[in-house]
Amino acid sequence: xxxxxxxxPNVGKSTLFNxxxxxxxAQSENYPFCTIEPNEGIVNVPxxxxxxxxxxxxTKKVIPASLKLVDIAGIVKGASEGEGLGNxxxxxxxxxxxxxxxxxxxxxxxxxxxxxxxxxxxxIEIIETELMLADMQTLENALSKAExxxxxxxxxxxxxxxxIGKCNAHLSEDQPLRTLKLNEGELAAVSSYGLMTAKPxxxxxxxxxxxxxxxxxxxxxxxxxxxTAGAQVVCVCAKLEAELAELDExxxxxxxxxxxxxxxxxxxxxxxxxxxxxxQSYFTAGEKEVRAWTVQIGATAPQxxxxxxxxxxxxxxRAEVYTLDDLEQYKSEKEIRQAGKLRVEGKNYIMQDGxxxxxxFNV
Length: 363
Description:
alpha/beta; flat; about 40% helix; 14 helices
């Protein structure tokens, strides 16, 4: 699973990507197409629950969950018609599972805005419109083939034609496909098209150093839009985060204290991107390592076991599960077991975020 970072040129997305991944993605303050090929990086997902587990189960190694981020070049108006190398950039968005859109919510005369003035809602509308137009083109191209196949009596093709019609009608009302209710079968019928506006979205408001909490009117506008779109907003100062990323741990803590932050705001981006992708973590804990494992929300115990090794899923017998609250109350797995709090779960168990597990299997 991966999330693509998008935005208009000069909104700070490559700066954020660099800080998140501690990489050196190409960037320039006033060159719109500095990111041509997408830069990729793996980001750890901060989780204080790991520290709480280790406080009770000392270990040699701690491994957090991680996710893949892709820094996609700045999109401009007309991208769906090829403006600004738009077709190439849009193809990169089709390949990710969720979108992280960075919008500029700060004024700075030294950093040119591609549209001439700072207006985050207009920025959001430009990108949403380009993605909707591109989706409409994709569906139009797919429709004729689906109709030909449907005429032969193919049930799957008939369903595909029906769903394409629903999607086109929704897009024609200027509504992204993520707001269209489709059942599992309908989603599967169009899943191969990589429809961009069907992907979940997270908004990142890039704020100034004097507004780290995002209190200015520009950020409020983004929050209101996100609420209507069923999305989340994270406020971050890309300039500050880039500076923090270059410091050692002691100096970083000192700088955070000076600006009144407990953690870098980038932590929130990683955590919210993780949630936007529909992911959650469960843990395994022992003397060798304490580790967070990533599963889709709604995953069964065998599916979760399969994340560790496919043999675990194939030969799944049962899962032994306890909670972090249990661990903090009883202080050890042995005491949890003796207190009768260690649950035995079977193949139909739906994993809960934060479960601590052992899997028993036989192959």
